[in-house]
Amino acid sequence: MADSERKDGSFVILMIDDDEEDFSLVKEALVSKRLKVDLYWAQDGDEAMNFLFRRGEYANVPTPNLILLDLNMPGKDGFEVLRDLKAHKDLRKIPAVILTSSGDEKSVSRGYNTGASSFMLKPLTFDEMANAMQSLCEYWFALVQLPKSPAGPARKTVRKEPISSNNSISEPIQ
Fold first, then answer.
1. DSSP 9-30
2. Within 13 A of 138's CA, how many CA atoms are on the CB side?
3. Mind listing the domains of the chain with CATH numbers?
4. Considering only Cβ atoms within 10 Å of each terminal Cβ, which end of the chain, N or C, has fewer?
5. Residue 102: left (phi > 0), alpha (psi -120 to 50), or beta?
């Protein structure tokens, strides 16, 4: 797997979620906080596996620095994606944050037991989502020290960019 160190200092987040509205909310939240993030989208678990293992049309995508993972998806669900991710020696170091609307104790416990780095309930408002995304990026990209991995080295700062027509949020992967 190629290193995803970005020349422009941006971070790569892969969001795995079947709900386009949730993806759009996260995308707009990141833009509103002017976080320098390239956000990619996989609409289900199978597409996520193709992205992560660089199969077919995903041969040249970067390795994500962080994964946002919904649990309830058609086909391969979030738990299965997490299990496969954590079973792979080159991908298991990538932090996987479960971002879901299901907060029952059984799902929380199963998520952590399967290897989730964090478990978050999806915020209900735009402002809550924007603040959550800022905190998440600051935590994973500035505060914690992560092991070296194909996702690139841990960084010390979360860079912000002025809002412009080129806001460094990638278009969704279809």
1. --EEEEEE-S-HHHHHHHHHHH
2. 9
3. 11-142 (3.40.50.2300)
4. C
5. beta
Q: Sheet containing 66-69: which strands, arranged edge to edge?
A: 37-42, 11-16, 66-69, 96-100, 118-121
Tell me how far apart the alpha carbons of residues 66 and 14 are, in angstroms, rounded to a whole number: 6
Q: How far apart are CA 95 and CA 67, in angstroms?
A: 6
Distance between CA atoms of residues 43 and 14, nearest Å: 10
The dihedral through the CA atoms of 102, 108, 112, 118 has a sign that is positive
CB 37 within 8 A of CB 160: no
Q: Which residues pair with 118 in a beta bridge?
A: 97
Q: What is the pLDDT of residues 45-80, one digit of tens each?
A: 999 999 999 999 999 999 999 999 999 998 899 999
**Environment class of 127 (CB within 10 Å of its CB; exposed 0-12, middle 13-18, buried 19+):** exposed
Q: How far are the Cα atoms of 72, 106, 146, 171 from residue 154, in angstroms, in the given order?
A: 30, 32, 5, 25
Q: Rounded to an integer, what distance in angstroms lies between the CA atom of residue 37 and that of residue 35? A: 6
Convert the pLDDT of each residue in 90-107 to its tens digit.
899 999 999 999 889 999
